[in-house]
Write a structure and sequence with these properties.
- By secondary structure, the protein is mainly α.
- The chain has one domain.
- Helices cover about 70% and strands about 0% of the residues.
- A two-stranded antiparallel sheet has the order 1-2.
- Helix 2 runs antiparallel to helix 10, helix 3 packs across helix 8 and helix 10 runs antiparallel to helix 11.
- It starts with 5 loop residues before the first strand and ends in a 6-residue tail after the last helix.
Length: about 240
């Protein structure tokens, strides 16, 4: 893959360990392992057992699930699926930030309700992505909302095309997926993953864990978008 400009599932040759894309995927897995090592082996203990904290934790976990499957998709030469997952990863992280910092008690209650037709209908009236982001920008720490706003401004709309099988994935599927784009998307996913773990650290109430998770970016500058991940999340 290091000798090619595109990722394509139809290509016969397999990537080697010296390939820069394989290296990025390996470093991405190492990043998540290092992040996980910041937390107790028995699992996360929340500083508050409220529905708000529990839902925010679940949204972070969902975002991390998307991140893992995204790397699996790119590693399996299925980059269009991986690109679509990046949009889902972002939206789950945005939901986590909104739940933690901006959602009202009534909105939290709607998402905490037992899943049935009535609860599903009530949840349809909850804010969409842009409204959630606007609320998060007003009240969340700068180190969190800056990266969410930047992603929304430069990446969310193009990724919408991958979710809905628009012109981007149709052209990429026919012409090949640019290697530089694949590298960039995985790095962006790593940035969102780092933010999800930072939220989880804050939910634990441990300042020491929050600092440890935040400082990890210094050891993984090769696979993280440094500009926004370096900013402190604050209290």
């Amino acid at each position: 893959m290091s000798e090619r400009n595109n990722l394509s599932a139809s290509e016969a040759s397999e990537p080697s360990d010296s390939d820069p894309f394989v290296t990025l995927l390996m470093r991405s897995d190492e990043l998540e392992s290092a992040l996980l090592a910041c937390f107790p082996a028995m699992g996360l203990v929340l500083a508050d057992d409220s529905a708000r904290f529990e839902l925010a934790t679940t949204a972070c976990t969902l975002s991390l699930e998307h991140a893992y499957v995204l790397r699996t998709a790119f590693g399996s030469l299925a980059p269009n699926s991986g690109a679509a997952l990046l949009r889902l990863q972002y939206e789950a992280l945005l939901r986590a930030a909104w739940l933690l910092y901006a959602a009202s008690s009534e909105q939290v209650a709607k998402l905490s309700a037992k899943l049935n037709t009535e609860a599903e209908q009530a949840a349809k009236n909850l804010p969409g992505n842009m409204e959630m982001l606007a609320s998060v920008v007003k009240v969340a720490p700068q180190g969190l909302y800056a990266s969410l706003a930047e992603f929304n401004q430069y990446s969310r709309h193009a990724l919408n095309s991958f979710v809905h099988s628009g012109i981007h994935p149709l052209r990429r599927a026919q012409e090949g997926f640019p290697l530089d784009l694949a590298l960039r998307l995985v790095v962006m996913s790593n940035g969102l993953m780092h933010q999800a773990y930072r939220i989880l650290a804050s939910l634990s109430g441990s300042q020491r864990r929050m600092d440890k998770v935040t400082r990890l970016y210094r050891d993984f500058v090769d696979c993280l978008p440094i500009a926004t991940n370096a900013a402190p999340m604050g209290g």
